[in-house]
Each structure stands twice: as C-alpha cells, then as structure tokens.
Amino acid sequence: MDLTFLGAAHEVTGSCFYLEACGKKMLIDCGMIQGHDVKEEQENLGINASQIDYVFLTHAHIDHTGRMPLLSKRGFHGEVYATSATCDLCEIMLRDSAHIQEFEMEWHNRKAMRSGAAISEPLYNMEDAENVLKYFKPCTYDNFIQIAPGLTIKFIDVGHLLGSASIEIYLNENNVQKKLVFSGDVGNKNQPILKDPTYIHDADYIIMESTYGDRNHEAVEDYRVSLSEVIKTTFDRGGNVVIPSFAVGRTQELLYFLRDIQEKHMVKGYSNFPVYVDSPLAIEAIKIFGENIYGYFDDEAMELVKKGINPISFPSLKTSVTSDESRAINFLTEPAVIISSSGMCEAGRIKHHLKHNLWRPECTIVFVGFQAQGTLGRALLEGAKKVKLFGEDIEVKAQIKELPGISGHADRDGLVRWLEAFNKKTPERVFVVHGERDVSDQFAEYISERFSLSAVVPDRGDKYDLALNTCVFKATPSVILEKQDHPQKDETSKLSPVFAKLVAAGNRLLQVVRRNEHGANKDLTAFTDQINSLSDKWDR
Fold this sequence. Notes:
Blueprint: E1 2-7, E2 16-21, E3 24-30, H1 39-43, E4 54-56, H2 62-65, H3 68-73, E5 79-83, H4 84-115, H5 126-133, E6 136-139, E7 145-148, E8 151-157, E9 165-173, E10 176-182, E11 205-209, H6 223-237, E12 241-244, H7 250-263, E13 275-278, H8 280-291, H9 299-306, E14 317-319, H10 323-328, E15 337-340, H11 350-357, E16 364-367, H12 376-381, E17 386-389, E18 392-395, E19 399-402, H13 412-420, E20 429-433, H14 437-451, E21 455-456, E22 463-465, E23 470-473, H15 497-515, H16 521-538
Parallel strand pairs: 3-4, 4-5, 5-6, 10-11, 11-20, 12-15, 12-16, 13-14, 13-15, 16-19, 20-21
Antiparallel strand pairs: 1-2, 1-22, 2-3, 7-8, 8-9, 9-10, 17-18, 22-23
Helix pairs in contact: 4-5, 4-8, 6-7
C-alpha cells in the first residue's frame, strides 16, 4: 500500500496522487498545474501512464482533471470513476482545455516561425480529450463501488462544485485493512445552489486540502449587498464591472446572486442592467447544471425549481458564443457586468476584456475566487501597475476589488469543522495538500497542536508505505532517505510526440501481456507468434 504525491504538494494546483495497492495502480485526480513557466512540469506526469488501472476524480475543475487527456496520450487505457455530474462537466471542460492547448500553441508557433524559432506541439489535442472520455464511468453519491478484489470506493458530497466529492477508498491487502479519505476541495457552507459538505467520521489516513488553511473568509452578511454596491458605484462612474470567473461553478453562483439582485431591485437606478456571460464553456455548463438538479441542488434552489423559476437565469442575461459576439461587448455604450473566464486570467476571453477595461479608471475588475501564485490574477490583486496582454503593455487604472466570502473553498474554520467530524477513529496520519507552501505548513502545525494528530505536508515525489505508516522516499534532499525508491519518471515527456505515442503503445502491449499470464497455452502461443512477427517486420 504505497501512496506517492505527484502534485498539489506544497502547491495549490496540479492535484495528483498515485496509489499502489491490491495489485492495482491508481491515480486520485490528474490536474493541470497553473502559473507561469510550468511547461516541463506539466508534461512530466511522474508515472508510466499505460500502467495505470484506475483514476478516481474528486471533481471536474481543471486543476484536478486537466491532464487526463495527456494521460490518454501517453497510453492510459484504464477506467475513470467520478460522479455523474463530474462526468458531464468533464465532457465539456476537457474538450475546452484541448481547444485552448491547440489554439495557444498555434498562436505560439506562428510567432516562432516568424522569428525562426522551433515550433512546439500542444500538451494534448482534441483527439486525446475525446479518447480519455471513453473510459469515464458515472457514479452516484453514498454507494459502495467494488472496483477490484480488496478495493472499494465511495463518493461523498463535499459541496464545492456540482458533482464534487470526497472519496473514501477501502483497501484490504494481505490481511491489512486501511481506509483512506481524499477530501477533494471542501466546499463553503451556505453557498448558493449546492448542498453543504457532508461530513465523514472515520479514516486511517486523510489527504486534505488547505487552500485557505491560514485564514478565515471575511464575514459578509449578504454577498448580494456587496456585489450590488460594487455594481452601482461602477455604473455611476460610467464603467463596466468585469468579473474573471471560473466558467464552471463560480459563474453559475454569480448568476444565482445576480438573478436575486435584479428581482429585488438592489442596484438603485439600474433596473434590469445587462449581464454578459462571455464564455462558451460557462454557457454549456449552465445547461449541465440544469440537467443535474436532483441529488445535487440544495433546498433553497430546489424551492425555486418547484416554482418554475430557473435559479441561474433572468431576462437581462446575455450570452456570447461566437468570437464576433465576444468582440461586440467591447463596443457597448452602456455600463454592463461582464463575466468571463478564466478565473485566474491565464487564458480565454477574459484577457481581451482586461485589455479593453484595465486602463479605464471608471471600470472595476472584481475577483471572486482564489488566485494562485504566478497568475495574472494574483499580480493584479497584489497591485501590479502595468501588465502585458497580447504583447502590449496595459496600465492598470481600473479599480481592483476582491469580494470577500465569495469562495467555493472552506476557510480555516470550515476545514477544521470537516476534520473535527472524524470522531469515531483517530487517523494514523493526516497529509496536508493543495495549499501554498507557507499555508500548508501553518495549517499542518495548527491541526497537529489542536487535535494531537500526526500531520505532515508532503513534497512532490514523497512516497509513503501506508501499511507501515512510514515514509519510504523523501523528495527533500536534506532529509535522509529511509529507502532509495524514487517515483518513476515519465520518460515519454522527453520524446517527440509521434515516437512518444509509439512508446505508449509498447507499454500498453506489455501490460496486455502481463494480464494474460494465466491464459490458455494455445492462445498464448498465438499471441507470442503475432508479437514476434510484428517485431521481425520492424526490427531493422
């Protein structure tokens, strides 16, 4: 029973955990790393993709799922388990991510060719995204799912995003039984649309997020009031309110608030003000929210549904799908609320809206979600006076606001409440992940003292034997290794894309051979002859 930390270790994004148990190799999440200069890290999965039997996904956000197409590109042919809503959202999000990869690489290569530089391949393409989606298996909350002998999982609603879950993993290997709980991203209480997190009461090991582990969200009596005040103040100046928002989850929550704000006429003097959602992905996600009501929406949202009211739609809501529709927003003659992705301003149409509004002092840029280190959003929040967009220097004269309390993540008290629920059995160890370095360290120290628990913050590459509760490889060079057993490197990341696919196919063939160990002699002989014939043809 070995657990290796391949991502979200002393960092917020790139969630990826590698579990070897019961003769199976598994990943819990396989997320994209966000920030600048992470291309090499992005390409290196840290494992041989063709050997992975299963992937379990906590939710659909790209920092938890964004490298799934890369996994497929490198030879993965296993099974992917997630809630039904997560499967539906991944259908659109992974395709959208592939489109972004292809589009941005095309733009990069046009520049490279003009300057004589080498051209590059995208991290993955639409075909890779389509391929991995074939392996998804939708699941429901609160049901035990036997994956293989000795291996059972259960998804528990964690209230962060439509379909989001904590995952319980039950292992029984060589008469050793262990229960692992991966928190996923723990949701905030009293959020719109979604139910509050469901608490779990026992585990041998907990792998928990710590995004806001060092602070609590500022108390806000009503998000609607804060948002209304920002809108009115900005409109009075004649400016736009531009909201960089995650297309899936946060955008739908904002629409929930804005529908109520308009219904109650909370922005005095501006009845039925226009709200633009400029994100094809967000628009598709709105449809998926409408198709996944039962079992996911909270009581308040369900009351609206029963009255025939769409909780995330209203008459003045306008959506932009085509590029022409998006560009037209830049020529509006009346103030508007513009919601666009990506939430950290790293890609997508939001960068165009920032280009057209950042230099205008009458406008307001409103951040409603976490901004990771190294992102454009974080730079703006930290007071950047000038930023570069599409090769052009843009002065930052717009008002920069962060609405406190509007977060899909639990704050420190919320994380503590989630951890306090484990009252039936003291965990052997708590692994603190998914947080910036200082935040994770502080939170691990805090819960160690408060609960008298063994809490550690792993680094990327750390490996633990869960049967013995022992670290068998510590990635930090200054620490004496208990066992020289390094996590496997993903050598395919160094190869040309076409040859990498050939290597992945070869790795898959080796796995097929191993899985036929107990096949009939006649079949094994025929299989051997086929392989030898193929090898003779290409061994030149």
